[in-house]
Amino acid sequence: MKTKKTRLRNGSIGLILGMMLITPTVARAAEQIKLPTPTTQLILENSETSTEPQAVVVSVKGKCDYSEDGATFTKLEEKQVLKEGVVLRTGEGARADIFFRRIGTTMRLQEQTELTIENMSRHTTDGDPVMRTLLDLKKGRIFTVVRSFVPGSTLEIRNAAGRSVVEGGGTKGRYIITADGTQVADKDSDIPLKVIGQTGVTIITPGQKFLAEEGKLLPHDPSEAVLTFIEFDELQALMEKHD
Question: Residue ranges of the chain with pLDDT lower than 50?
Fold first, then answer.
């Protein structure tokens, strides 16, 4: 009986000592284990091989945040890949630049803007991939630069005027779109901007401004255009860097 007790005691001591030796190692290994990152926070390098349309954050200035459920908001950071349904917000004096991969589009959310990415889809027409992107501009203003838009693809932005649509087929487009329905097509654009509202369809040709409240098409103010050229050039440079 004494022998059995001694073995049991020695076995217990060995087990305890083993746990004491293993526990620090396990703790260190556990610290290195990372849970899978949310879809919205995948880094840019991991998204470049995807053939699906994606929205990638390429620049953030000031206080900007995002929400996947429309209720809880988190700080927006560079290199995030945004999924459908995400809501983006920019604070006072802030801005965020988003690159829509596969449709050759860069977008700048100006200060105090709220935008929802409602749909980013890819389908095939006549054997060729076609992209559809649908956004909802609830507040503020965005600058958009499109380059070599895929034929048959569409970029659609909802606002107070209805739907602002850019359709594939041209090589370059630069636009200002506001939540209240004011829209501008830069004079250097090859692709006109189509506004689909309750009263019909309005085509905004290069160099024109559309005032939704008045339903008027006007020449783009040259003094205002000078300021926006800088914005457009910055966006175009970002696109070329990340395309």
Answer: 1-47
- Is the pTM value of this prediction over 0.85? no
Residues 53/82, Cβ–Cβ less than 8 Å: no
- DSSP H or E stretch at residue 175: strand 172-178
- The two tokens of residue 181 are 């329905």
Separation CA 87–CA 80 (nearest Å): 13
Residue type, 138: K
Name the DSSP letter for residue 140: S
* Residue found under tokens 């070599």: 148
How many helices (H) and strands (E) are present in the chain, helices listed first?
2, 18
Helix locations, the chain, DSSP H: 2-32, 222-242
Torsion of CA 108, 110, 113, 119, to 10 degrees: -10
CB 160 within 8 A of CB 128: no
Strands across the sheet with 172-178, in order? 81-82, 54-61, 95-101, 105-109, 141-147, 172-178, 183-185, 208-211, 216-219
Distance CA(137)–CA(153), nearest Å, equals 20
Cβ(55)–Cβ(82) below 8 Å: yes
pLDDT tens for 189-216 read 888 899 998 878 999 998 898 988 777 8
Amino acid letter, 11: G
Q: Residue 189's closest CA among 147, 221, 243, 156?
A: 147
- Size of the chain in residues: 243
Residue 83 main-chain phi, psi, to 5 deg: -100, 170
CATH class of the domain at 39-242: mainly beta
